[in-house]
Amino acid sequence: MVEGLLQGRGAVVTGAAQGIGLAIARVFCAQGARVVIGDRDADAARAAADTLTAEGGTAVAAGCDVTVPEDVDALVRTCVDAFGALDVFVNNAGITRDATLRKMSLDDFEAVVDVHLKGTWLGLRAASLVMREQGHGAIVNISSLSGKIGLPGQTNYSAAKAGIVGMTKAAAKELGHLGVRVNAVQPGLIRTPMTEAMRPDIWEAKEREVPLQRAGEPSEVANAVLFLASDLSSYITGSVVEVTGGRGM
Q1: Ketoreductase domain spans which residues (predicted)?
Q2: With contact defined as beta carbons under 8 Å apart, do 238 and 169 qualify?
Q3: Which residues span the domain enclosing 163?
Q4: pLDDT tens digits along 58-77
Q5: Residue 221: pLDDT above 90?
Q6: Is 235 a catalytic residue?
Q7: Active-site annotation holder among 60, 157, 216, 243
Q8: CATH number of the domain encompassing residue 175
């Protein structure tokens, strides 16, 4: 891998205290970025930032509920104040509240849509206001394979993740002439604490659906995000990169 792809750039990753978000932040730090770890769990965010700093990276933590506009605005200001610019913003924060249509509550539907769709919109808006003044920037939104093919028990999650794709394309058309690129990544079956909590038989069945015959690793999603955040993708905007091992194609 080419080194220093994000050297000296200021980056924000939401939901970065663990899982895919932490993997993204780690790859960014390894590539020279200075990263703000945003997470609703402020203590976990600080622990993640301390870990990345101990590994030789530059990272600071910020508590942030992505559904609260003031929190998201403060997250952006943290990056600008600490590092002098906001070059990359990754909308990664997410939750699940899976249930069938018959059993899903309105609260569970709204909670998932709020975090994923509203949260991504708030991050996109706040980041773009800074980036358009700078004349450059890269925003990466984390969608999901569920948003492409739909999955049973995830009418809330599938709808929100599909909405992120439409939002990404609309924003890319609005912001392209200002030097701001907006892209999305759709992970498939990725090995995280959440997915590994599945029953072994269900996990094995899902792996068999993947042409590469295995689950992906968080670092493999992070590498795709790195590509879209860096100048390697300088002529790419409004695109959706699938990191699925071929599942759902």
Answers
A1: 10-193
A2: yes
A3: 10-233
A4: 999 999 999 999 999 999 99
A5: yes
A6: no
A7: 157
A8: 3.40.50.720
